[in-house]
Structures are given as C-alpha cells and as structure tokens.
Amino acid sequence: MHSRRQFLANTSRLAAITTVGARSGTNCSVADDNKTRHRYIDIHTHLGAFYHGRELTAELLVQFMDHHDVEMACVLPLISPESAPIVQPVTMALAAYRQFPDRIIPFCSLDPRAVTEPGKRSGHVAGVQGLIEILKRYQAAGCRGLGEHKTGLPFDAPQQMALYEACNKVGLPILFHLDDIRNPDTPGLPRLENVLKAFPELPLIGHAAGFWASISGDAQFEDFGRYPDIPKKVIAGGALDRLLSRYPNLYGDLSEPGGEKALARDLEFAREFVIRNADQLLFGTDVLMPGQAIPQFELLASLNLPDDVQHKIYRGNAIKLLKL
Ligand SMILES: [Zn+2]
User: Fold this and answer.
1) Per residue in 84-95, pLDDT tens?
2) Do the bridges between strand 125-126 and strand 121-122 make them parallel or antiparallel, or are there none, so unpaired?
3) Domain spans of the chain?
4) Least buried of 54, 113, 126, 173, by fewest C-beta within 10 Å?
C-alpha cells in the first residue's frame, strides 16, 4: 500500500496531468501510469442528507476523497420513492461535477415509472423512446452511467426491461441495488440472469445485501434483507461466481456493508473470489454522510492481492467501463 506521504507527493504531479480537457470527448483518458497506479476510483457515493442533519456536500466529499487517496468518485442520484427518505436529484450530481470536473463523475437516475411525453408510453410501460430522450439529455450533460437504480419493482418487471433497453441503446452502464424489497430477486438470481441474457452488451453493476448474499451457495431469501454474521463460511456454488463467469457484462460493486461483509465473512474464500473475478469487481464506498467509517480500505489491503488485481479493482476496471 502507498503511504500518505507518497500520496501527497504524487498529488502535485497529478494536478499537471489530470486535466478537465483530458476527460471530455471519446478518447479521453485519466492518467494511469505508475504514479497513479493505486489511487482509487470510487464507483459509489451519494450527496445530500440521507440521514437528517448529516448532509454530505460536494466540498465534504472531495475532502473525504483527498483524505483517502481517492482520485475520482461517481456521484449517484437516488430518485425512486423506495431509494431514500429524501430524493437526491440528478441536478445535484451535475452541479457537483461542474464544481469539481476532474474529481466527480456524475451518474443519472431514472425511474421506469416516470412520466414520458404523451404518445411515448405503451400501456403501463413508459415507452422506450421516451426514456431514451431523457437519458440522452443526461448523457449530454456529462452523466457516465445510470444509478443508483433502486426501485420497488421486481428486477425484470416489464417497466424495468424498458429502462434497461433504453440504457442499452444509449450506452449507459447501470449500477443497481438488489435486496428483498428494492429490485428484488430470489435465491439464484434468476431475474437478474434474465436481464443479463436479454442485454449481453449492457454492463450491470450489482450492489447491496441481496446481490452480495448470493456469493454463497446457501443464500436464502431472508438473507437478501440483512447482512451476514462475521465470520461465516461461504458455501461454494453461489450465484455470483456462476453469473460472473457466464456473463462478462456483470460487475460487482464492493461498496457498503453488503460488499464488505461478503468478503470479510470468509477471508480465505474472498481472496480467491476477488482474484478469479478481478476483471469484474469495482472499488466503492457508498459514502453518504460526513464521518462515515469505510472498512473497505483496510479490508482490501489486508487481502494482499497481486498488484495487477489490485490495480484493476481500485481503478483500472472503472476507467475501462466508464471510458474515463
Ligand atoms: Zn444501494
């Protein structure tokens, strides 16, 4: 692991090579040489007051990033009624991006139950074309992905399929929450597999208790709404290993207690799981309030991962996936 002193020494050099201009356009590139090799890209953060009185502002997020050696962070809006006590609009993520264009990667969020323009709906399903028009406007404003996708609809409900189709058409990866009530699925994740099969070119980044409970072959539906005890042996044959190896468009977001405890419950299993799925795992924190403890930093360091694996998970996979 890098030291704080090394990080500070690298920061001034980085300022020269990481420019706003370098990120715009399709051939943009974030510096990815030896000096930046282990700086994190955080796939999962939120702005606003998820908890009353504990607002995380863009300034506080960037302070957190500086403290933890995080070069860039994805800011994920939360707009579905099931997703947060008070919604976190896309405009908030875009405002943070305008304020810190070389540190913040804005995502957009769109509930498939959204009203689209008259004539662009079909029955209860928002028309794919109507959704595409909204997504394209967000993309033009700088959004690199859709998420956090966190609705009360079953994972492969018809409305959801319309949104996935729209994201597939415009080329927006989706970061989704999956538990027992948000985008719910059942053990074995058959609904998720339906979507992976239907849209093999659409990157789907999984997160939360239900997704990560599926690391173990004995996951029950009740486990989708809670976190495992630590330690707790992982039973081989979990849905995640099966789906990650069969569908290269599936990714795992290691943020929040779901990602953390999936690894911490069985460190021996975790190290091998991370190594064999190294191309499909992404570092993330899910930081959403000031002073939040993030065990992922120490946990991932403690796995003593091979250098190339660490590089992919900390930043390399995010650079590729989000075309940074
Ligand atoms: Zn979530």
Assistant:
1) 999 999 999 999
2) antiparallel
3) 39-321
4) 54
pTM (two decimals): 0.89
Specify the pLDDT at position 127.
83
> What is the spatial distance between Cα 183 and Cα 176, in angstroms, rounded to a whole number?
8
**CA dist 154 → 43, 88, 158, 195, 258 (Å):** 24, 22, 9, 12, 19
Q: What is the mean pLDDT of the chain?
A: 90
The C-alpha atoms of residue 209 and residue 117 are separated, in whole angstroms, by 35
* C-alpha of residue 177 to centroid of ligand 1, in Å: 5
Q: Ligand 1 center to residue 87 CA distance, Å? A: 13
Q: What angle do CA 179, 182, 183 make, to 5 degrees?
A: 90
Yes or no: say if 128 and 162 are a contact pair by the CB < 8 Å rule. yes
CATH class of domain segment(s) 39-321: alpha beta
Tokens 């302070």 belong to 63
CA of 235 to the centre of ligand 1 (A): 24
